Each structure stands twice: as C-alpha cells, then as structure tokens.
Amino acid sequence: MEPQRSPLLEVKGNIELKRPLAKAASRLPLSGRRLKRGPDQMEEALEPEKKRTRGLGTRVTTTHPRAAALNSAPQTQGQTAAVPRAPRKSAPRYSMAVAPVLKTQKPGPVVPAQKPGTTAAPPMVGGKKPKRPAWDLKGQLCDLNAELKCYRERKQVLDQENQQLQDQLREAKQQASVLGAERRTLEEELTRVRAQAEQGQRELGNLSARVLELEERLGTQEGLVQELQQEQLRLQEERRGLAAQLGEQERRLQTSEASLSDSQAEVASLRQAAAAREAVLAEREDRLHGLEMERRRLHNQLQELKGNIRVFCRVRPVLPGESTPSPGFLQFPSGPCGPSDPPTRLSLSRSDERRGTLSGAPAAPTRHDFSFDRVFPPGSGQDEVFEEISMLVQSALDGYPVCIFAYGQTGSGKTFTMEGGPGGDPRLEGLIPRALRHLFSVAQELRGQGWTYSFVASYVEIYNETVRDLLATGARKGQGGECEIRRAGPGSEELTVTNARYVPVSCEREVEALLHLARQNRAVARTAQNERSSRSHSVFQLQISGEHAGRGLQCAAPLSLVDLAGSERLDPGLALGPGERERLRETQAINSSLSTLGLVIMALSNKESHVPYRNSKLTYLLQNSLGGSAKMLMFVNISPLEENVSESLNSLRFASKVRSLAAPSPSGFLLTVGVCTLVLQASGTCIPKGCTFARQLTIDFWGCLN
After folding, report:
1. pTM confidence score
2. What class, spelled out in words, does domain 307-352+379-422+431-568+617-659 have in CATH?
3. At residue 299, does pLDDT exceed 90?
4. Per-residue b or e along 301-330, where b marks 16 or more CB atoms closer than 10 Å to that residue's CB
5. Which of 65, 88, 241, 281 sits CB 3.0–4.6 Å from 122 for a disulfide?
6. Over 70: is that where the pLDDT of 100 sits?
7. Could you tell me which residues are annotated as the binding site?
C-alpha cells in the first residue's frame, strides 16, 4: 500500500514547479517633439504621445510586426529610452489572443483588428517578427497593448493558481495541526499507559512480597495463638487466685476505710489546732515585733541617758624594749560600787623638777585626776573594749547614727584599737572587724522576724584637708583631688564622697580585704614618737539599710569609725629642714581639724543654732553622725610612758572637756534605768535577748542600792 503523502509536501512541490517570469525592460522612443516630422505625421504622433503609459518593465517578444519596427527605430540625439508600463485593467479585445500564450508559454501569431487610418503589421519573415517603422507609433502601441493583455491574462491565471495553492496550504496546515494534536494526545496516552503498566508491575511485585510476608506472619501468628492459648489457661488459673485475693483485699479495704475516716477526723482536728497555733504564732509575732520596737525605743533611751556624747579612756600596755613607769605614775581608782565595778577614773602623777630645785628638796609629784564614762587599764583586751561599745553598735542597726573616734598622740594605740594588730590573731582584732561581725550576726537573727539588712562600706582618709579614697586601686591610687564631699541629691541630707568606692559587704572576709587594702594606701610617716605614724584621719563608714517588707518599715543609719591622726604639739625650737617642713604642715592641718572637732562638739552640747561643720573636711563629712539623735563615743588613747606625760595630759584634758559638755547625771540615769527595769519585770514582760547591757545594768543598780 502506497504511503499517504502530506498535503504540505504536495503544496511545496507545486510551488517549486513554478518558474518566475523573465523580465526585460522594453524600450520606447522619446517624444516626437524633437523629431523632424512632416505635417501629415504630426497628428498621428500626438495621439500616442498623450496616451503613453509605462508597461511592466519586462521585455516580451511578440509576433506583432509593428513591435519589431518600434524596437529597430533609430533614436535621435537627446532622446532617452522609456519603458512603458501596462495598465492594470486589460483591454477586452486582446483577451482571446493572449490566453493561448499564457497556457502554453509559446504564443502564436496574433493579428489584431486594425483601426482605420493605421497600417497593418508587416508579416513574419524567417520566424522573426518584423520591426515596425519608427513613425508607426500607433502600431507599436497596439503591439504593446496586446502584450500587456497577454501578461494580464497570464497574471490572472497565476493568481488563481496561487489562490488554489494557498487554500491547499491552509488545509495542509490545519490538517498538520490536527494531526500534531492527535499525535501529542496519543503520545501522552502512551506515556500514561506505560506509567500505569510500570506502576501495575510494581504493585504486583509489592503484592507478591506482601503475600509472602503475610504468609510468614500467618505462620508466626499461628504459633503465637498457640502460646496465647496456653497463656490464657495459665491466666485463668491466676485469675481464680486473684479473685480470692481480691475478696481478702476488699475486706481489708473496708477496714482501712474505717481507719481512714477516723484519720480524717483526726486530721481535721489537727488542722483546727494548727490554725489556732498559727493564730497564736501570728499574735506572738505581733507581740514580738512590738517588743522589738519597744526594745529599740528603750535601748535608745538607755543610750541617751548614758549620754549621746561619751568619752572612754584607754591606756596601752608597755611594749617590749620600753622603760617601765614608776608604780605611782598611773592609778585606776575603783568605781562607786567597789572593785567589781568597772573603773571610770584615772590619776596621773607628775613630778615638777623645777620646784624641787628651788626649794632644795624634792617636791611631791603633782596628781591629776580625770573622770570618764569608762577607763580601760593596760591589761584590758580588745574583747573587753568591744563589749562596752557593742550596744552602741546595736543602735546603728536600730537606725540611729553612731560615730566612734580614736583620739590621742602618735603611738598611743589608736590604730590598734580601731583596726587591731598584725598577724591575724582573733584576740587582737579591733573595733571595725568586731563591729561588723556583730552587725552581720544580729542582722541574721533579725531575718527570722522579717527584717532584711544591707551594708555598704567606704574608707577614706583626710590628709592636709584633702580627701583620698583608701579603697582605690590601679591608677586611681593617691588621686585625692578627685574626691569631694557632696550632697547625695537636691534636698537630700545624705553626704557622699565623689569618685570614692562604695563596696557592698556581707561577710567578714570582705571586710578584712578592705582593711588590708586601706592599710597599704594610708599616708604614714616616721616621727619622734613612732617609727610608722599615721599622718591623716581615716574614716571607715558603713551605711546600714534595713527593711521589714511585711510591715512596710525601713531604717537607715551610718556607722562611722574614725582613726584620728596623731595629736602632737609643735616644738617652736625645732630646726626645720625640707622633711620637717612637710611634717609641720601635716601637724598644723591635724591640729586645726581637731580644734574644729572640739568646737563642733561644744556647739552641739550647747544646742547652738550654728554648728561649724564646714570649718574642716572631717566635721563636714561626719556631720550626719554627730548632731541630732546621733550617738558619739570618743576613745582617748594615752601612752603609759613617763616621757610622754606632757602629751598624755593634753589628750586627757581635751577628752575631759568633751565629756564635761554632755555628761548625764549619774543618779538620774540609774534611777531611770531601774524604774524601766522594774516596770518590765512587774508587768511580766521578759527583757529582750538583745538587752544584755540592760540586764547587767539592772544587776549593778540593785547591787549598789543593797
């Protein structure tokens, strides 16, 4: 069977069979205005001149004899060849003659009808068309019209064929697009069928594997069924045993439920008892809080009755290598209640050599008697000293400002009293570490009552009226000019030192590290009284803040522990070198600040309207710890050596003057404390645990009365 040929290929073959027509430019003579014609020829020449048109531009050889004559006509000078173009509309009279030529491509001789007045075309000679004479323009025009008509008919035939071919081409394209769509559809269908077949093969393989797996599982399940049947028999036996046990457990459960009901009743009664105890506990907490507040109030009254300004005297022991003083040089008379009473008086004997020389006999030594709130002989230890001031430290924890000074000449034991001795011996610890240990311990006890405390420490020195930070580290060491005393804020009474470190502390180890750093940074120098003498006032301040969140109570107070610089008088006969001049300036600054301190204490005791705090950096920094409800204690430290008797007398006289400014009445003080104690005992109220000093004071008071 012969394969079907594509319509597109047929159309392409039909187009290739057609050949383009050969075109040649036809040449016509120019206008006859430049030809020399006679009068009889002018009329014939004008008509073709007016009707001249351009042909198709293709040279076509015809059998018309006139066309040959036109082509062979000579051209005159100045004429150009013109190609006549045939009009688009063909003449009807030439249609019959041109049709055979278009069909066979071999036109035969066509003799058109002659118009009157025209000459006939000459006959063909030897198969060639004879040329018309040049003057026969009308004949030439007729030939051209005949050729034009032939070409037009041929063009119509070609147009028809072209239209037929285009129709066939469109049909072929449509058929090709339809066949392409069908081919794509069939290809997609074929792909889908192949995919389905592959999927079917895979599913078939999976099903086969699944069948094998299920067969294996079936065999396994059959074995399991047998095992389960055996297990079922065993479980049935166990079920019968458990049923018997269940009956027993139900009987026991009934017994337990009865016991549970009794226990629930007991729990309810215990809860009621617990609620009652909680109520009692809350009542006792309220009572305890009231007692704590009452303790604070009575404790403050006790401290005020003892005096907001108190003076203690401490005599240091004789150090190895020093001369032992004479037996009557220092005497410590007993207290008003006998030898068991702590001493409060001191007697210092001084011999006047000048009086003995004038009379010729040795004069009796001059005796100087001094009375203080407490006197510590050379044998008193650090623990005994701190026990005396522990209640004053407790006042700081209760919210009252407290300031403790150590005053005296160089080498009298001020720094030892405040900071302690070297070597880390616990028995030699000074007031600063012992006070902080006491504060940490009491704050921990008060935590059970709802109080929480925080402590922030600072340590500065005042050297030549310049404030330096003793806790500075690195490049800030010794930069005293950067520290200034300023108010904490607008309208605030709290004072702070700018650029100084304020370190939160919570344990003794942190305090020891701060004290060690401060000892390294403090300004010291060698003097005649001491190999290493402190030439500045050191001020250790601990800001205490307490809060009772449950009751909305707060308290805050500073505890200031001050180690004053050595107080020596100036020797006017001393030769001043460069080093002595520096010591002289230091001594002048120290004595000036100590004098200002005495003036401030005098103004506070006299309740003057103006207190000269700003006359010294020391008093300006401590003004919140000196006035108002603040408690102040001065330790006057003296040397036991006879060679320092002059400086010792000056220190004792200054301390006696300070004590005389605010000394309370002993009888009124004892009577008031005794009455407060009697009231507490008569009402059945126990004295709080913290009031150990009040207990001892009550015992001493009744012992003195008996």
Report:
1. 0.55
2. alpha beta
3. no
4. ebbbbbbbbbbbbbbbeeeeeeeebeeebb
5. 65
6. no
7. 408-415
